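Exam prep: given the inputs below (a chain plus GLP), describe the expected output before reading on.
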Amino acid sequence: MAQLDVLQPKKEEFTMLVIVKNNYDLLSKEAAKLVADRLRKKPNLVLGLATGSSPLGLYKELIRMHKDEGLDFSKVTTFNLDEYVGLPPTHDQSYHYFMHENLFKHINLDVRHIHVPQGMAKDIDAFCAWYEQRIVECGGIDLQVLGIGGNGHIAFNEPGSSLGSRTRIKTLTGTTRVDNARFFKSKEEVPRYAITMGVGTIMDAKELLLLANKTSKSDAVKSAVEGPITAMCPASIIQMHRSAFVFVDKDAASKLTGTYNDTWESKIFE
Ligand code: GLP
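Solution:
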Protein backbone atom coordinates (compact mmCIF):
# COMPACT_ATOMS: atom_id res chain seq x y z
CA MET A 1 0.00 0.00 0.00
CA ALA A 2 2.80 2.36 0.94
CA GLN A 3 4.30 1.84 -2.48
CA LEU A 4 0.97 2.52 -4.16
CA ASP A 5 0.70 5.81 -2.26
CA VAL A 6 4.01 6.89 -3.74
CA LEU A 7 2.78 6.09 -7.24
CA GLN A 8 -0.58 7.85 -6.90
CA PRO A 9 -0.46 11.26 -8.52
CA LYS A 10 -1.21 14.18 -6.20
CA LYS A 11 -3.41 17.18 -7.00
CA GLU A 12 -0.37 19.45 -7.33
CA GLU A 13 0.69 17.55 -10.43
CA PHE A 14 -2.56 18.37 -12.20
CA THR A 15 -3.32 21.65 -13.81
CA MET A 16 -7.11 21.55 -13.88
CA LEU A 17 -9.77 19.73 -11.89
CA VAL A 18 -13.33 19.82 -13.20
CA ILE A 19 -16.05 19.21 -10.61
CA VAL A 20 -19.58 18.57 -11.84
CA LYS A 21 -22.47 18.97 -9.39
CA ASN A 22 -26.13 18.17 -9.91
CA ASN A 23 -27.38 21.68 -9.33
CA TYR A 24 -26.35 25.25 -8.59
CA ASP A 25 -26.96 24.96 -4.87
CA LEU A 26 -24.63 21.96 -4.51
CA LEU A 27 -22.05 23.63 -6.75
CA SER A 28 -22.07 26.78 -4.61
CA LYS A 29 -21.73 24.82 -1.37
CA GLU A 30 -18.88 22.70 -2.72
CA ALA A 31 -17.05 25.81 -3.92
CA ALA A 32 -17.60 27.53 -0.56
CA LYS A 33 -16.06 24.51 1.21
CA LEU A 34 -12.92 25.03 -0.85
CA VAL A 35 -12.72 28.76 -0.10
CA ALA A 36 -13.33 28.09 3.62
CA ASP A 37 -10.64 25.40 3.63
CA ARG A 38 -8.10 27.81 2.15
CA LEU A 39 -9.15 30.56 4.55
CA ARG A 40 -8.83 28.33 7.61
CA LYS A 41 -5.36 27.28 6.46
CA LYS A 42 -4.32 30.87 5.78
CA PRO A 43 -6.32 33.48 7.75
CA ASN A 44 -4.67 36.34 5.83
CA LEU A 45 -5.71 34.86 2.49
CA VAL A 46 -5.54 37.14 -0.55
CA LEU A 47 -8.82 36.41 -2.26
CA GLY A 48 -9.67 37.41 -5.83
CA LEU A 49 -13.40 38.03 -6.30
CA ALA A 50 -15.79 38.14 -9.23
CA THR A 51 -19.19 39.71 -9.85
CA GLY A 52 -22.11 38.38 -11.89
CA SER A 53 -24.78 35.84 -11.03
CA SER A 54 -22.46 32.80 -10.99
CA PRO A 55 -20.70 33.48 -7.65
CA LEU A 56 -23.87 34.64 -5.83
CA GLY A 57 -24.53 31.19 -4.33
CA LEU A 58 -20.90 30.93 -3.21
CA TYR A 59 -21.11 34.33 -1.50
CA LYS A 60 -24.40 33.37 0.16
CA GLU A 61 -22.83 30.22 1.58
CA LEU A 62 -19.71 32.09 2.77
CA ILE A 63 -21.98 34.57 4.56
CA ARG A 64 -23.80 31.65 6.19
CA MET A 65 -20.48 30.12 7.26
CA HIS A 66 -19.41 33.45 8.72
CA LYS A 67 -22.65 33.80 10.69
CA ASP A 68 -23.14 30.16 11.77
CA GLU A 69 -19.60 28.85 11.96
CA GLY A 70 -17.59 31.98 12.67
CA LEU A 71 -15.66 31.87 9.40
CA ASP A 72 -13.32 34.80 9.92
CA PHE A 73 -12.52 37.30 7.17
CA SER A 74 -10.86 39.91 9.42
CA LYS A 75 -7.37 39.33 8.02
CA VAL A 76 -8.42 38.65 4.43
CA THR A 77 -7.45 40.98 1.58
CA THR A 78 -9.64 41.05 -1.52
CA PHE A 79 -9.09 42.11 -5.11
CA ASN A 80 -11.99 42.30 -7.53
CA LEU A 81 -11.53 41.42 -11.15
CA ASP A 82 -13.18 44.35 -12.84
CA GLU A 83 -15.37 47.44 -12.80
CA TYR A 84 -17.29 49.46 -15.38
CA VAL A 85 -15.69 52.75 -16.42
CA GLY A 86 -17.84 55.77 -15.60
CA LEU A 87 -20.06 54.24 -12.90
CA PRO A 88 -19.59 55.67 -9.40
CA PRO A 89 -19.44 53.14 -6.52
CA THR A 90 -22.94 54.25 -5.47
CA HIS A 91 -24.49 53.24 -8.84
CA ASP A 92 -26.58 50.14 -8.30
CA GLN A 93 -24.99 48.43 -11.32
CA SER A 94 -21.41 49.19 -10.34
CA TYR A 95 -19.38 46.22 -9.20
CA HIS A 96 -18.50 48.15 -6.02
CA TYR A 97 -22.17 48.25 -5.16
CA PHE A 98 -22.69 44.60 -6.13
CA MET A 99 -19.86 43.43 -3.88
CA HIS A 100 -21.00 45.55 -0.98
CA GLU A 101 -24.59 44.31 -1.20
CA ASN A 102 -23.85 40.66 -1.89
CA LEU A 103 -20.81 40.01 0.29
CA PHE A 104 -18.85 42.78 1.97
CA LYS A 105 -21.55 44.20 4.22
CA HIS A 106 -22.42 40.74 5.57
CA ILE A 107 -18.97 39.59 6.69
CA ASN A 108 -16.19 40.94 8.91
CA LEU A 109 -13.81 42.15 6.20
CA ASP A 110 -11.65 45.13 7.10
CA VAL A 111 -12.67 47.81 4.56
CA ARG A 112 -9.01 48.83 4.27
CA HIS A 113 -8.30 45.39 2.80
CA ILE A 114 -10.88 45.65 -0.02
CA HIS A 115 -9.73 46.47 -3.55
CA VAL A 116 -12.12 47.03 -6.44
CA PRO A 117 -10.93 48.78 -9.63
CA GLN A 118 -11.88 52.48 -9.66
CA GLY A 119 -14.14 53.03 -12.65
CA MET A 120 -14.06 56.79 -11.98
CA ALA A 121 -10.25 57.05 -11.87
CA LYS A 122 -9.02 60.19 -13.64
CA ASP A 123 -5.85 58.52 -14.88
CA ILE A 124 -6.93 55.01 -15.73
CA ASP A 125 -3.50 53.81 -16.90
CA ALA A 126 -1.88 54.98 -13.66
CA PHE A 127 -4.64 53.32 -11.65
CA CYS A 128 -4.16 50.02 -13.50
CA ALA A 129 -0.39 50.09 -12.86
CA TRP A 130 -1.09 50.78 -9.16
CA TYR A 131 -3.57 47.89 -8.98
CA GLU A 132 -1.00 45.45 -10.36
CA GLN A 133 1.62 46.76 -7.94
CA ARG A 134 -0.79 46.53 -5.00
CA ILE A 135 -1.50 42.85 -5.75
CA VAL A 136 2.25 42.17 -5.65
CA GLU A 137 2.67 44.18 -2.41
CA CYS A 138 -0.02 42.03 -0.79
CA GLY A 139 1.88 38.87 -1.72
CA GLY A 140 -0.10 37.93 -4.84
CA ILE A 141 -3.60 36.47 -5.09
CA ASP A 142 -3.92 33.08 -3.38
CA LEU A 143 -7.29 32.06 -4.78
CA GLN A 144 -9.11 33.81 -7.61
CA VAL A 145 -12.86 33.29 -8.09
CA LEU A 146 -13.98 33.53 -11.73
CA GLY A 147 -17.20 33.41 -13.71
CA ILE A 148 -17.26 32.92 -17.46
CA GLY A 149 -19.04 34.96 -20.10
CA GLY A 150 -21.23 33.25 -22.70
CA ASN A 151 -18.51 34.12 -25.24
CA GLY A 152 -15.71 32.61 -23.10
CA HIS A 153 -14.54 35.86 -21.49
CA ILE A 154 -13.07 35.95 -18.00
CA ALA A 155 -13.38 39.19 -16.05
CA PHE A 156 -13.76 41.60 -19.00
CA ASN A 157 -11.09 39.94 -21.13
CA GLU A 158 -13.11 39.55 -24.27
CA PRO A 159 -12.32 37.10 -27.11
CA GLY A 160 -9.09 38.23 -28.77
CA SER A 161 -7.60 39.60 -25.53
CA SER A 162 -3.92 38.91 -25.15
CA LEU A 163 -3.37 35.84 -23.00
CA GLY A 164 -0.49 37.71 -21.34
CA SER A 165 -2.47 40.90 -20.65
CA ARG A 166 -2.35 42.85 -17.38
CA THR A 167 -4.88 45.17 -15.69
CA ARG A 168 -6.07 47.73 -18.25
CA ILE A 169 -9.08 49.38 -19.86
CA LYS A 170 -11.04 47.25 -22.34
CA THR A 171 -13.89 47.92 -24.75
CA LEU A 172 -16.82 45.58 -24.11
CA THR A 173 -18.09 43.54 -27.05
CA GLY A 174 -21.64 43.93 -28.33
CA THR A 175 -22.46 40.41 -27.04
CA THR A 176 -21.32 41.22 -23.51
CA ARG A 177 -23.22 44.50 -23.49
CA VAL A 178 -26.36 42.67 -24.63
CA ASP A 179 -25.76 39.91 -21.99
CA ASN A 180 -25.33 42.50 -19.25
CA ALA A 181 -28.19 44.74 -20.44
CA ARG A 182 -30.56 42.61 -18.30
CA PHE A 183 -29.22 44.48 -15.27
CA PHE A 184 -29.69 47.96 -16.77
CA LYS A 185 -32.79 49.81 -17.96
CA SER A 186 -31.64 49.52 -21.58
CA LYS A 187 -28.65 48.30 -23.61
CA GLU A 188 -27.62 51.93 -24.23
CA GLU A 189 -27.06 52.35 -20.50
CA VAL A 190 -24.50 49.53 -20.34
CA PRO A 191 -21.05 51.16 -20.16
CA ARG A 192 -18.79 50.71 -23.18
CA TYR A 193 -15.56 50.31 -21.25
CA ALA A 194 -14.34 48.50 -18.17
CA ILE A 195 -11.16 48.23 -16.14
CA THR A 196 -10.23 44.59 -15.87
CA MET A 197 -7.43 42.44 -14.53
CA GLY A 198 -5.64 40.93 -17.50
CA VAL A 199 -5.50 37.26 -18.38
CA GLY A 200 -1.86 37.28 -17.25
CA THR A 201 -2.85 38.88 -13.92
CA ILE A 202 -5.46 36.16 -13.37
CA MET A 203 -3.01 33.40 -14.32
CA ASP A 204 -0.58 34.65 -11.64
CA ALA A 205 -3.06 33.68 -8.89
CA LYS A 206 -1.89 30.59 -7.05
CA GLU A 207 -5.26 28.86 -7.47
CA LEU A 208 -8.27 29.52 -9.71
CA LEU A 209 -11.88 28.68 -8.97
CA LEU A 210 -14.12 29.07 -12.01
CA LEU A 211 -17.88 28.75 -11.55
CA ALA A 212 -20.41 28.14 -14.30
CA ASN A 213 -24.04 27.13 -14.25
CA LYS A 214 -26.94 27.04 -16.73
CA THR A 215 -27.14 25.64 -20.26
CA SER A 216 -26.33 29.10 -21.65
CA LYS A 217 -22.74 28.54 -20.43
CA SER A 218 -22.34 25.02 -21.88
CA ASP A 219 -20.60 26.12 -25.11
CA ALA A 220 -18.23 28.45 -23.26
CA VAL A 221 -17.44 25.71 -20.70
CA LYS A 222 -16.83 23.16 -23.46
CA SER A 223 -14.41 25.53 -25.23
CA ALA A 224 -12.69 26.51 -22.00
CA VAL A 225 -12.20 22.99 -20.68
CA GLU A 226 -11.94 20.76 -23.74
CA GLY A 227 -11.25 23.15 -26.60
CA PRO A 228 -7.93 24.38 -27.94
CA ILE A 229 -6.19 27.09 -25.91
CA THR A 230 -6.90 30.25 -27.81
CA ALA A 231 -7.28 33.97 -27.23
CA MET A 232 -10.67 33.61 -28.93
CA CYS A 233 -11.81 31.86 -25.74
CA PRO A 234 -9.81 33.62 -23.00
CA ALA A 235 -11.11 31.16 -20.38
CA SER A 236 -9.32 28.30 -22.20
CA ILE A 237 -6.02 29.53 -20.71
CA ILE A 238 -7.03 27.92 -17.42
CA GLN A 239 -5.89 24.63 -18.97
CA MET A 240 -2.36 25.99 -18.53
CA HIS A 241 -2.82 26.90 -14.86
CA ARG A 242 -0.98 24.90 -12.25
CA SER A 243 -4.01 24.60 -9.98
CA ALA A 244 -7.40 25.44 -11.45
CA PHE A 245 -10.77 24.20 -10.18
CA VAL A 246 -13.74 24.40 -12.51
CA PHE A 247 -17.08 23.98 -10.73
CA VAL A 248 -19.98 23.38 -13.10
CA ASP A 249 -23.56 22.27 -12.70
CA LYS A 250 -25.03 19.54 -14.92
CA ASP A 251 -26.46 22.04 -17.39
CA ALA A 252 -23.22 23.96 -17.90
CA ALA A 253 -21.40 20.59 -18.17
CA SER A 254 -23.86 19.16 -20.71
CA LYS A 255 -21.49 19.49 -23.69
CA LEU A 256 -18.41 18.08 -21.95
CA THR A 257 -17.34 14.61 -23.04
CA GLY A 258 -14.66 13.84 -20.44
CA THR A 259 -15.18 12.04 -17.12
CA TYR A 260 -14.99 14.39 -14.19
CA ASN A 261 -15.02 14.38 -10.37
CA ASP A 262 -17.82 15.50 -8.14
CA THR A 263 -15.63 16.79 -5.32
CA TRP A 264 -12.34 18.67 -5.03
CA GLU A 265 -11.54 16.85 -1.80
CA SER A 266 -10.58 13.44 -3.19
CA LYS A 267 -6.95 12.63 -2.55
CA ILE A 268 -6.46 10.40 -5.56
CA PHE A 269 -7.05 11.41 -9.15
CA GLU A 270 -7.47 9.14 -12.14
C1 GLP B 1 -19.49 39.84 -16.58
C2 GLP B 1 -18.30 39.91 -15.64
C3 GLP B 1 -17.58 38.60 -15.53
C4 GLP B 1 -18.60 37.50 -15.30
C5 GLP B 1 -19.51 37.40 -16.49
C6 GLP B 1 -20.56 36.30 -16.35
O1 GLP B 1 -19.25 40.27 -17.87
N1 GLP B 1 -17.36 40.92 -15.98
O2 GLP B 1 -16.63 38.65 -14.48
O3 GLP B 1 -17.94 36.28 -15.11
O4 GLP B 1 -20.18 38.62 -16.67
O5 GLP B 1 -21.63 36.75 -15.57
P1 GLP B 1 -22.71 35.83 -14.96
O6 GLP B 1 -22.07 35.10 -13.84
O7 GLP B 1 -23.79 36.76 -14.47
O8 GLP B 1 -23.20 34.92 -16.03
